[in-house]
C-alpha cells in the first residue's frame, strides 16, 4: 500500500522520527488522486486488488468508510456491514481496480472539517459477513491522511522500508502539495533538485548496507521531509548451528538463536527492539535449505519483542513463541492478573509480536513424579478459567482447588489456555500453540496451577484445538492469499473438508501433511514436558481427515473413516511414546463403529460420551418411551472391550440440566420439578444413577451446585458469572455433597470400576448392579412423578447398607421391593463404605446473634470467639462439609477462644459452638 505520511519534521529530529513509520506491503494497494487532499476537496480513492480473485466471486465491490478519532463514525447513509448501501458501490475500472470519489466534508456534514484528520477505508462485498469457513469477504483496512489547509505536504513514491538488491535501478517520484524546491538525497548525498510539484529520478542502489532515501521540500515559509529506509538484500547462507530447533534457542544468558522454517520463501529479516523495527542488513537471517536462522547477542534478563519479515512483505510473530505482545488486547489485561506486562511497541510496528528473554526465573516444581489416576476411575471437572473465578486467572483457579479436592475430583480439564484471538473467549479460536493466554496470567502461574493440582492428587488435562487455526496464527499468515491458505502452505488445506458450513471454523489443518503431524507432535510434547500436563482433550477430532464430508449424507463427518483412524492413532502413539501414562481424550462423537476401534486401540483412547439429552429428560421427568435412557452411557452397551467412555450429562457445550429442570420440569400434584429444591434433588438423582455406571465420568463446572443459568444468556459463549454464591444455599450444598460422596466411592472402592455389572436404565425406575470379589452394590432410583415400587433381585442375602442414609436392611431372600418416592435414590452395598471427611449435613447458621460473637469477619489470620457461657466444643466446617477444626475444651471450657485461620483457603466457613449447657450456636465466616 502507499503510505501518505505527511508529518512536518524539524531537521534536528529527522533521523529519530523516520524510524517510526515502517510498514509492509501486501498484494493490494490503495492510492488517492490527488495525492494530497483536504477535508473540503474531492478525492478519488482507488483499490488495486492485484493477486485477488474473490472480487469476481462477490459480484460488486463496495466501499466501507469511517472517521477515526476524535470523530469516530460512519456516514449516516452507508447502510450496515451486512447490507451496504448501493450509493457506496465502487466503480470497476478494470484489471481488478475499483474506485470511489467523494468529498470528506460532504460525507460528514455535521463534523467540523478541521477535525477530520484520518479516514479509514475497506473494500468489501455488499454483505461483508464471514462465509463461515473462515474466508473473509473484505480486504484489510487502510487509513487515509487528510491534509490540513495551508500546510506543505511531501511524499516519495517508495514505501518504507524498501528492501532492494545491489545496484538496482529504483524509480523515485517525489510529490508535494504546492510548488516548492524539491530535493532528493541518498543518505547525505544530494541526487537531484527541482522547482516544481513533482521530482522524478532513478536511483542506483548501493552494493550493501542500510541507507535512507530522503526527500525535502522548501518554500519561502515551510520545509517538509519524507523518507524511506532502504536495505540491500544479500545472498546470505550458512549451516544451521548444531542443536538449533524451530523457534527460540537460548544458547546462554547473553545469546539467543532464532529459527524459522519457511519452505518456498526467499529471505527473512528479524525486526525488533534491537534494530528499531527496521529490516537492517545485520538482522537478515541465514538460509540453510528451508530454514532461516540468526544468532543474537542480547542483554541478560531483558525481555525483547520481535517479528519476522518474510519475502519483504509478510510480517509475522514467531509461531513457536511462548509469549506474544498484542496491540489490540493487551491493554485490557489488568496488572493484577499479569504484573509488569511488557508494553506493545506502538508506532514502531503493526500486528502481534513475539517475545524472548534470557535468564528467566524457572518454576520450582514441588511434584516431579505425579502419576495420573487409572482411566476407569477418572472424575473429570471441566472448567473455563474465564468464568470459574471473577479474577479470570490461573491464580483464581488455584484459590479454589481445595474445593475441588473436597469434591473428590481427580482430573481438572482446562478449556483452551493457549493463546487465542481476543481476551474473552471459550478459546476454540487458537492462534499461538506454545504460549499461554496472558488474559489468564503469567506462564509460571499456569505451572503452579498444575503443580498445586498434583499436590492434591488431581491430574491436569488441557483442551487443544488442532482441527483448525484462526487468521492471526503465523502458520496461517506465512502462506496466505486471497482470503485463504495458499497451495504451498505446509500445514493447512485451502478449503475445509466439510461441506457443512456449521462444521467449518477458521482454517482447516491438513492432518495428512508431515509438517502438520510434526507440528502436532511438538505441541503435545511441549505441554507435557514444559507444563507437566497429564494429557489432552482434543477438540473436534472428526476434522482430522482430508476426506470430503458431504452436507447431504455426512454433515458432521460421523461416518466411519479409516484414514482418520490412522491419523488419530498415530498421534496417540506419539503422545504415549513421550509419556506412557498420558490421558488421551477425543471429542469425537462419531459412529460407534469408528469409536469402538479407537477405544480398543493400544492403551485405549478415551472418548467423550454425550448423554445430555437423556439427562435433561430424566431431570425434568420426561421419562416415558425411553427418552431418559442412560444405557448408552455404558461402554458395554456400545460393545467396547475397554472402559474408555468419558460419559457426561453436561459439558461446556450443552444447556445446563438444572436450567432445563427448572424451566420445563413436569409436575404431578404438589410434586413440581420446576420448584428449585425439587429440581436440585433431581440433579442428585441423575448423579446417583449415572456416575455409578463404571467408567470415567466428566461434568462441567458448577454442575455440582445445580448450575441453573441459561447457557444462552448473555450469549452462548459470552461471559458468565462465577456461581460461588451458590455455596451459601443448603439445597445446593446438598447436591455438592451427593457428588462428593459418589466420587469418593468411585475413587476409593474398586467395585465402582468393575467389569461385572448389569443395569436397567431405560425406564421410569432405574437400577445398576455391581459385583467384584464377593462384594456387591445395588443403586436404584425413581425418575417418575409418583411413588413407585421397584423390585430388584439382589445378588446375595444378608445385611445390606444404604450409603446415603446410614440405614441397613437384612434380606432373607434375593428379591427386594423398594418403595421409592418421586426423585428418591438409594445405594445399597454388602460392604459398609466409609464417608471420607465430608460431614452428612453442614449446620445451618443460627438466627440469634447475641449468645456468640465472632470477629473479625471477614477474617485473615486469627478468628476470635466470645460466648455468654463456657464453650465445650468448637467445630469449623467448609461450606462443602470439610472439617477444618474440631476442638474440645476439658473441664469448664472457655468463654473466649482464638483460632488460627491463616492456613484456611479463601472461602466461606461455618463455625459451630456447643456450650457446656448443650446450647448450639453457628456463625458464617468469610476468609480472604
From TrEMBL:
Pfam (any one): Alpha-amylase
InterPro entries in alphabetical order: AMPK1_CBM (IPR032640), GH (IPR017853), GH13_cat_dom (IPR006047), Ig-like_fold (IPR013783), Ig_E-set (IPR014756), Secre_tail (IPR026444)
Keyword tags: Signal
Gene3D superfamilies in alphabetical order: Glycosidases, Immunoglobulins
Annotated GO biological process: carbohydrate metabolic process
Secretion signal span: 1-22
Domain Glycosyl hydrolase family 13 catalytic stretches: 382-746
SMART domains: Aamy
Family (UniProt): Belongs to the glycosyl hydrolase 13 family.
Family annotation (PANTHER family): GLYCOGEN DEBRANCHING ENZYME
Protein name per Swiss-Prot or TrEMBL: Putative secreted protein (Por secretion system target)
Amino acid at each position: 500500500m502507499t503510505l501518505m505520511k505527511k508529518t512536518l519534521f524539524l531537521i534536528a529530529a529527522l533521523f529519530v522520527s523516520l524510524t517510526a513509520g515502517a510498514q509492509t506491503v501486501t498484494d493490494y494497494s490503495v492510492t488517492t488522486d490527488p495525492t494530497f487532499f483536504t477535508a473540503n476537496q474531492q478525492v478519488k480513492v482507488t483499490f488495486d486488488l492485484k493477486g485477488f480473485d474473490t472480487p469476481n466471486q462477490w459480484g460488486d465491490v463496495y466501499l466501507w468508510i469511517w472517521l477515526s478519532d476524535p470523530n469516530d463514525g460512519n456516514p449516516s447513509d452507508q447502510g450496515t456491514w451486512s447490507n451496504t448501501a448501493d450509493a457506496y458501490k465502487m466503480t470497476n475500472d478494470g484489471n481488478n481496480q475499483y474506485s470511489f470519489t467523494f468529498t470528506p466534508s460532504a460525507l460528514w456534514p455535521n463534523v467540523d472539517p478541521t477535525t477530520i484528520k484520518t479516514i479509514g477505508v475497506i473494500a468489501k462485498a455488499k454483505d461483508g459477513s464471514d462465509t463461515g469457513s473462515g474466508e473473509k469477504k473484505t480486504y484489510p483496512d487502510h487509513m487515509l491522511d487528510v491534509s490540513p489547509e495551508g500546510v506543505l505536504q511531501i511524499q516519495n513514491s517508495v514505501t518504507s522500508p524498501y528492501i532492494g538488491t545491489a545496484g538496482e535501478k529504483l524509480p523515485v517520484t517525489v510529490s508535494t502539495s504546492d510548488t516548492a524546491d524539491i530535493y532528493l538525497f541518498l543518505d547525505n548525498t544530494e541526487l537531484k533538485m527541482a522547482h516544481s510539484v513533482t521530482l522524478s529520478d532513478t536511483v542506483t542502489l548501493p552494493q550493501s548496507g542500510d541507507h535512507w532515501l530522503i526527500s525535502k521540500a522548501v518554500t519561502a515559509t515551510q520545509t517538509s521531509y519524507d523518507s524511506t529506509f532502504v536495505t540491500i538484500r544479500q545472498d546470505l547462507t550458512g549451516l544451521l548451528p548444531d542443536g538449533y530447533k524451530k523457534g527460540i534457542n537460548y544458547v546462554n544468558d547473553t545469546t539467543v538463536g532464532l529459527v524459522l522454517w519457511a519452505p518456498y520463501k526467499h529471505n527473512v529479516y528479524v525486526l525488533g527492539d534491537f534494530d528499531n523495527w527496521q529490516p537492517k542488513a545485520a538482522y537478515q537471517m541465514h538460509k540453510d535449505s528451508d530454514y532461516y536462522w540468526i544468532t543474537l547477542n542480547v542483554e541478560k534478563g531483558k525481555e525483547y519483542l520481535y517479528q519476522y519479515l518474510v519475502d519483504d512483505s509478510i510480517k509475522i510473530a514467531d509461531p513457536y513463541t511462548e509469549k506474544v505482545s498484542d496491540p489490540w488486547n493487551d491493554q485490557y489485561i489488568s496488572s493484577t492478573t499479569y504484573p509488569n506486562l511488557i508494553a506493545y511497541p506502538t508506532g514502531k510496528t503493526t500486528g502481534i509480536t513475539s517475545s524472548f528473554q534470557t535468564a528467566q526465573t524457572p518454576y520450582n516444581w514441588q511434584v516431579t513424579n505425579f502419576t495420573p489416576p487409572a482411566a476407569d476411575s477418572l472424575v473429570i471437572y471441566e472448567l473455563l478459567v474465564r468464568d470459574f473465578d471473577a479474577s479470570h486467572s490461573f491464580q483464581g483457579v488455584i484459590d479454589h482447588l481445595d474445593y475441588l479436592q473436597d469434591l473428590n475430583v481427580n482430573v481438572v480439564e482446562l478449556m483452551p489456555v493457549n493463546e487465542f484471538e481476543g481476551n474473552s473467549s471459550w478459546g476454540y479460536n487458537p492462534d499461538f500453540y506454545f504460549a499461554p493466554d496472558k488474559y489468564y496470567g503469567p506462564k509460571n502461574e499456569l505451572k503452579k496451577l498444575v503443580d498445586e493440582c498434583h499436590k492434591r492428587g488431581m491430574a491436569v488435562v488441557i483442551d487443544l484445538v488442532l482441527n483448525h487455526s484462526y487468521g492471526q496464527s503465523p502458520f496461517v499468515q506465512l502462506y496466505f492469499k486471497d482470503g485463504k491458505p495458499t497451495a504451498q502452505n505446509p500445514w493447512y488445506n485451502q478449503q475445509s473438508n466439510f461441506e457443512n458450513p456449521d462444521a467449518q471454523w477458521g482454517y482447516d489443518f491438513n492432518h495428512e501433511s508431515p509438517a502438520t503431524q510434526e507440528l502436532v507432535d511438538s505441541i503435545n510434547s511441549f505441554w507435557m514436558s514444559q507444563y507437566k500436563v497429564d494429557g489432552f482433550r482434543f477438540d473436534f477430532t472428526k476434522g482430522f481427515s482430508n476426506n470430503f464430508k458431504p452436507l447431504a449424507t455426512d454433515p458432521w463427518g460421523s461416518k466411519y473413516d479409516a484414514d482418520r483412524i490412522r491419523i488419530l492413532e498415530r498421534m496417540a502413539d506419539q503422545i504415549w511414546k513421550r509419556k506412557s501414562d498420558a490421558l488421551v481424550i477425543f471429542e469425537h462423537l462419531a459412529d460407534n463403529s469408528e469409536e469402538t476401534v479407537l477405544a480398543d486401540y493400544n492403551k485405549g483412547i478415551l472418548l467423550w460420551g454425550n448423554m445430555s439429552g437423556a439427562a435433561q429428560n430424566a431431570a425434568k421427568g420426561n421419562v416415558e418411551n425411553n427418552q431418559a435412557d442412560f444405557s448408552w452411557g455404558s461402554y458395554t452397551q456400545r460393545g467396547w472391550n475397554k472402559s474408555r467412555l468419558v460419559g457426561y450429562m453436561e459439558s461446556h457445550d450443552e444447556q445446563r440440566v438444572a436450567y432445563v429442570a427448572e424451566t420445563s420440569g413436569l409436575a404431578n400434584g404438589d410434586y413440581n420439578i420446576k420448584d428449585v429444591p425439587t429440581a436440585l434433588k433431581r440433579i442428585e438423582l441423575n448423579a446417583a444413577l449415572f456416575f455409578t455406571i463404571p467408567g470415567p465420568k466428566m461434568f462441567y463446572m458448577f454442575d455440582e451446585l445445580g448450575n441453573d443459568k441459561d447457557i444462552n444468556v448473555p450469549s452462548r459463549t459470552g461471559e458468565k458469572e462465577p456461581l460461588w454464591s451458590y455455596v451459601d444455599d443448603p439445597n445446593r450444598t446438598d447436591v455438592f455433597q451427593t457428588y462428593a460422596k459418589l466420587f469418593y466411592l468411585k475413587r476409593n472402592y474398586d467395585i465402582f470400576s468393575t467389569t461385572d455389572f448389569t443395569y436397567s436404565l431405560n425406564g421410569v425406575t432405574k437400577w445398576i448392579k455391581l459385583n467384584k470379589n464377593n462384594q456387591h452394590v445395588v443403586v436404584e432410583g425413581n425418575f417418575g412423578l409418583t411413588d413407585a415400587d421397584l423390585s430388584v433381585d439382589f445378588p446375595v442375602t444378608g445385611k445390606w447398607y444404604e450409603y446415603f442414609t446410614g440405614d441397613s436392611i437384612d434380606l432373607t431372600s434375593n428379591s427386594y421391593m423398594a418403595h421409592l418416592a418421586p426423585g428418591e435414590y438409594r445405594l445399597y452395598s454388602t460392604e459398609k463404605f466409609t464417608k471420607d471427611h465430608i460431614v452428612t449435613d453442614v449446620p445451618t447458621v443460627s438466627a440469634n446473634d447475641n449468645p456468640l460473637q465472632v470477629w473479625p469477619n471477614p477474617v485473615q489470620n486469627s478468628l476470635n470467639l466470645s460466648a455468654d457461657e463456657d464453650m465445650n466444643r468448637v467445630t469449623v466446617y467448609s461450606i462443602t462439609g470439610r472439617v477444618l477444626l474440631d476442638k474440645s475444651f476439658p473441664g469448664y471450657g472457655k468463654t473466649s477462644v482464638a483460632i488460627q485461620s491463616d492456613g484456611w483457603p479463601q472461602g466461606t466457613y461455618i463455625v459451630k459452638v456447643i456450650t457446656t449447657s448443650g446450647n448450639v450456636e453457628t456463625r458464617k465466616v468469610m476468609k480472604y
